[in-house]
Design goal:
Elements: E1 6-8, E2 17-20, E3 34-41, E4 47-54, E5 59-65, E6 72-73, E7 77-81, E8 88-94, H1 95-103, E9 107-116, E10 119-127
Parallel strand pairs: 5-7
Antiparallel strand pairs: 1-10, 2-9, 3-8, 3-10, 4-5, 4-9, 6-7
């Protein structure tokens, strides 16, 4: 497939990232519950983070990384392992389901998405449900 990609590389995954929206005082306000990302595995450390708002009006963060082995749920952040196949991966993240299972609350909207090194990004989008290709 001929398409443009964005490559994120750095020795420190915590300080090499892109975020949307760029302004930390603003939020995305996206109500669609499925986050889909097409990411290339560069066989290095990689992590991404999504901040959502729930029906208790609390911001919750979900962080998935390929260098963590256990899931941890804390009041404001849930960290979990993620395994990437070789080459391109389609990561499908059901934000509504994760919010309900981790916190027992209902997903309202996505406030922020942060993608950290090391990966190639072909596409990131939200949808109302998962569609077959």
């Amino acid at each position: 497939i001929q398409s443009s990609v964005l490559e994120l590389c750095g020795t420190n995954v915590s300080t090499t990232y892109i975020t949307c929206p760029a302004n930390p005082k603003k939020t995305l306000g996206i109500k669609l519950p499925f986050l889909v990302m097409i990411i290339k595995n560069l066989k290095k450390y990689f992590t991404f983070e999504v901040t959502v708002l729930d029906d208790k009006n609390v911001n919750r963060r979900f962080r998935a990384s390929n260098y963590q082995s256990t899931t941890r749920v804390k009041p404001f952040i849930c960290t979990m392992p993620m395994r990437l196949d070789e080459g391109w991966n389609q990561i499908q993240f059901n934000l509504s389901d994760f919010t309900r299972r981790a916190y027992g609350t209902n997903y309202i909207e996505t406030q922020r998405v942060q993608i950290h090194a090391n990966c190639r990004i072909r596409r990131i989008y939200f949808s109302d449900r998962l569609y077959s290709e």
